[in-house]
Q: What sequence folds into this?
């Protein structure tokens, strides 16, 4: 395979080197297959399902739609970077478990990233704003009821 | 009415915390696509572009020769019965004579990189897998 390049990505606060990678690889592939960060999930690989949601310079993106090399020099945060270092869960992660918003769990990492993004931008979202924020995250198990309850719980925890 | 005494909490009727919840919200739960073994390859299917078609032939010669491609499989490579299913094992692993729906698998490519497999399956650039299907 031609067009092999080496570049550095800043992921979850750490500089990571990507060595001899094909130029055309998307960020999701590089995170999962080259950097050992499989938390971002590959479900549709066409920007429809939100399972690979990450933050790039604080903006929510589908990692599958980002050319990995173009993310060099930017700050990437994946679901692995959202838990506190002490092994505990973030408030959003805790709310998802406590409220029963996790079933098969394949969409969960993407939802966790989306909800972190929402609450950091808007600490007091309305129901409509919550629904809009997670509209890019497809879940086929929960019917979203418990997900909405989890977001509400995380929101209330932050307001206390 | 009698009341049972000495019954411990934490049994029937308790709201139990999901045991795999923690790993799943952290992205640490290993789904099948997260499993790894040395020497694993990437697969991509060649599917029928037609809802109903006669398969006149599947030419895998160029795809097989492409750099990075380890194997190209068709119905000829399926050992034993070429169909599967629980109650009625009548579904072809790979279609060989006719394609019965758009998207029916005809061949599979295994390669060292997902894009190599995709290119070989799509019949682009130097790696070409021609699946000669035509509408019935």
A:
């Amino acid at each position: 395979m031609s067009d092999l390049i080496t570049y550095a990505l800043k992921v979850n606060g750490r500089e990571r080197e990507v060595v001899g990678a094909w130029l055309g690889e998307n960020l999701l592939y590089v995170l999962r297959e080259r950097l050992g960060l499989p938390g971002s999930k590959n479900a549709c690989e066409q920007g429809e399902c939100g399972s690979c949601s990450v933050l790039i310079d604080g903006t929510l993106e589908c990692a599958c739609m980002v050319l990995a090399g173009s993310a060099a020099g930017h700050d990437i945060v994946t679901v692995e970077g959202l838990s506190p270092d002490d092994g505990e869960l973030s408030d959003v992660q805790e709310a998802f478990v406590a409220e029963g918003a996790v079933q098969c769990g394949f969409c969960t990492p993407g939802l966790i990233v989306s909800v972190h993004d929402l609450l950091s931008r808007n600490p007091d979202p309305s129901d409509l704003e919550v629904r809009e924020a997670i509209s890019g995250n497809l879940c086929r198990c929960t019917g979203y009821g418990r997900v909405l309850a989890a977001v509400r719980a995380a929101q209330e925890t932050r307001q206390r | 009415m009698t009341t049972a005494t000495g019954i411990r909490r934490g049994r029937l009727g308790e709201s139990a915390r999901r045991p795999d919840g923690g790993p799943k919200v952290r992205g640490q739960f290993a789904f099948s696509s997260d499993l790894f073994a040395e020497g694993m390859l990437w697969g991509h299917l060649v599917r029928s572009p037609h809802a109903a078609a006669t398969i006149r032939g599947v030419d895998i010669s160029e795809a097989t020769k492409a750099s990075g491609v380890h194997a190209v499989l068709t119905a000829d490579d399926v050992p034993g019965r070429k169909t599967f299913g629980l109650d009625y094992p009548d579904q072809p692993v790979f279609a060989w004579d006719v394609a019965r729906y758009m998207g029916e698998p005809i061949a599979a490519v295994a390669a060292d990189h997902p894009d190599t497999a995709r290119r070989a399956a799509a019949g682009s650039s130097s790696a070409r897998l021609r699946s000669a299907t035509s509408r019935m």
Observations:
- The beta strands of chain A are 4-11, 14-22, 53-56, 59-62, 75-77.
- The interface with chain B takes residues 1, 22, 24-25, 29, 32, 37-42, 78-80, 83, 89, 92-94, 96-98, 100, 102, 105-106, 108-109, 112 of chain A (CB under 8 Å).
